[in-house]
Amino acid sequence: MVTGPIRNFTRSNELNTKLHAMIPAGSHTYSKGEDQFPWLSPKIMARADGAYSWDVDDNRFLDWAMGNRVMILGHNYPAVNEAVKRQIDLGLNFSRPGMLEYEVAEFLLDLWGWPEMVKFGKNGSDVTTAAVKLARAYTGRKYAAVCGDQPFFSIHDWFIGSTPMNAGILEEESRYTLSFRYNDIASVEALYARHPGQIACMILEPVKNEEPKDNFLEKLRALTEREGTVLIFDEMIAGMRFDIRGAHHLYGVFPDLVTYGKAISNGFSFSALAGKRDIMELGGLKHDKPRVFLLSQTHSSETVGLAACKATIEECQRIDITKHVWGVGKRLIDGFRKLAHQEKVANHVRIIGFDCNPQILCTREDGSYWPELHTSFHEEVISYGVLIPWITITYSHRDEELAKTFEALQAGMRKVKRVLDSGAAVESTFTGPAVKPVFRPYNRCMQGTCGRLNANAPQRPCCQENVEGVSK
Ligand SMILES: Cc1ncc(COP(=O)(O)O)c(C=O)c1O
Q1: Domain boundaries along the sequence of the chain
Q2: CATH of domain 10-75+320-428
Q3: What is the pTM of this model?
Q4: Which CATH number fits domain 93-301: 3.40.50.300, 2.60.130.10, 3.20.20.70, 3.40.640.10?
Q5: Cα angle at 202 between 456 and 262, to 5 degrees?
Q6: Which of 134, 214, 247, 443 could in theory staple to 238 by disulfide, Cβ–Cβ 3.0 to 4.6 A?
Q7: Distance, CA 462 to ligand 1 centroid (Å)?
Q8: 161 CA distance to ligand 1 middle (Å)
Q9: Burial class (CB in 10 A: 0-12, 13-18, 19+), 76
Q10: Atom of ligand 1 nearest to the CA of 155
Q11: Of ligand 1's atoms, which has the minimum distance to the CA of residue 31?
């Protein structure tokens, strides 16, 4: 069913069954799982270098996913790897704080400018959850409000409990997690009206796919200040891409706490929580208030992540990564849109978002996401050796990579045109099942909200099937 040269996934398929027998979901990150990709795709990767990765069948892919957006320079980047190798010989984890902790703290605080203190973690969820805990301790309030238009803030119960995939989480855990809309200051005001004096924090990515409108960030800052709520910006994705110091620097709106992770250390495990001293110090030894247990982890100060972070940021400064990322992204978006018009699929295969952080969306005519079309399109693109489920621009993505991407995208768009012109059921135009949302209550669900459990959700065939433990 695909026209590209990459069709042999024999070894991937052989290993995949045992992978699922050993590891729940066959993956350590749901977004990398089998239900997120077309069946005709690499299931197990063997190695990666620069902008490319190879699967266990030795198929080579141009990689725009870069793990979960954890690269900014590219796989196997020499300056970072060398810094890490040097550090390994100097020791991994000391019995008291290491000099590198001091140096990286000073380096990052100098870079970011406004935060007065910083604490390190190993992944994003460590630091977003720590920020929420600090905010609750600081304000003595229970409610945390998240931006409901943004998909993910933490693996921890306070957040996952508020998603449809909440089995095993006490209802009490997420009872105090509220939601507001991006660019909708009225939705923030409505929360304050419903829970006056009770909201500890608001957490959001300062910018995602759309510009803040009508001074949304300034108004949010003013409202949170008026209400005594801690404002937390999550710079996990936006930081390093919009601006090496974090996207909020572009808008000149400064939160109380800020979190960084992902590409900040070019793939090594490292994250940081930074912010105002009076809040951060609650996790310290120099106060008489109740003590906050703040990110005390065996591996928080493991030196590899610290060395990788410093080397990554220094290299990004040296090469002016911001200019590169915005430039490549603009060319990708312009080329994509030109192709989509040329192939007459612009209403179905779209690219949205900022130049530095674009996103491909396969949609119905009305703009709504179409998972079956997504699967059909990506199956074809993958057969031309391009893995682009999401877009992570790195320093290793250059002219050659753009040319290869456009060739694969064109093939994918031509397939979409053929599929739509033929009038065939889109689900019959690819091998295997369509991709599904990560956050869904049952594996069989095709949508995030089960029509069996929620009267307002659309009734899909999967809503009618018998589900263990759920009466109709
Ligand atoms: C915006 C945002 N915040 C937090 C996280 C959590 O980071 P981690 O997966 O490193 O725990 C993610 C992960 O995808 C994210 O995208």
Answers
A1: 10-75+320-428, 93-301
A2: 3.90.1150.10
A3: 0.96
A4: 3.40.640.10
A5: 95
A6: 247
A7: 29
A8: 16
A9: middle
A10: 11
A11: 14
